[in-house]
Amino acid sequence: MTEPESTLPHVTLNFAMSLDGKISTAARGRFRFTSGRDRRVMDEIRARSDAVLIGGATLRAEDPPLQVRDARLREGRILAGHDEKLINIVLSASLNLPLGGRFFTTPGIRRIVATVEDARAELLASVKGLAEIVRLGQGRVPIPELLKRLSERGISRLLVEGGGEVNASFFEAGCVDEIYVTVAPIVIGGRSAPTPAGGEGFLAGGTAAFELVSCRSEENEIFIHYRRRSVAAGS
């Protein structure tokens, strides 16, 4: 009898960008340019997720808190039978990570570090004991295989919060199911300022198409929700 194929986690991307399509300045430091309403939306999306994943560059630049802030949303998670706290995941081939920062030192949080098979032994040793280590691939972590491993760990809804290189790797793998975008009423500029999807870029038609679910404006910001277009809809 054939074993049923495992279901990969549902992957949601959430990011904010400027009018000119930047997610940060060229300096790539922590830069908050959206409203409290955007942060509320982010909290609501997190509350529907099992885990939040960011890249090593985002962790080094911002070390953001990756939990649901609103007490009522946390209570709702508990009532729905979910853990109050989200699993925190960092994706890093280099393992150049701030081990003394908030990500690794906040108590009571389950942490996963996703890295490559050929990661340096001394760096692996420094992370051991601070987080569960998942090693996959050579040179870069293969996203579909990572999602399989996360599914085995009980994660069915994964939220990806960047940065642009991580987002691009999920797009390239065809593993993005939903996208939430907040467009802020500012212009950042800068040739080297990061965008929502970095990487090498795609040829025309080389990535999945998405369909608009909703679009609304509030406090001079635009909140957009897309989902992956089904094969039937795209035919």
Describe it.
The protein is of the alpha/beta class. The chain has a single domain (10-234), classed as Dihydrofolate Reductase, subunit A. Helix content is 26%, strand content 23%. It contains 8 helices and 9 strands. It has helices at 36-47, 56-62, 71-79, 102-105, 121-127, 143-152, 164-172, 231-234, and strands spanning 10-17, 51-55, 87-91, 111-115, 132-135, 157-160, 178-183, 210-218, 221-228. A 9-stranded mixed β-sheet has the order 5-4-3-2-6-1-7-9-8. The two termini are 34 Å apart. Residues 1-5 have low confidence and may be disordered.
The CATH architecture classification is 3-Layer(aba) Sandwich
Mind summarizing the main beta sheet?
A: 9 strands, mixed
Helix content: 25-40%
Total count of strands: 9
CATH topology: Dihydrofolate Reductase, subunit A
What's the level 1 CATH class? Answer: Alpha Beta
In round numbers, the mean pLDDT is: 93
Unreliable spans are: 1-5
> What series of H and E elements makes up the topology?
EHEHHEHEHEHEHEEEH
Shape: globular
CATH superfamily: Dihydrofolate Reductase, subunit A
Number of domains: 1
Rg calc: 18 Å
Task: Work out the helix count.
Answer: 8
Fraction of residues in β-strands = 15-25%
The chain-level structural class is alpha/beta
Distance between the termini: 34 Å
Strand order of the largest sheet: 5-4-3-2-6-1-7-9-8
Key phrases:
9-stranded mixed β-sheet, alpha/beta, 8 helices, Dihydrofolate Reductase, subunit A, single chain
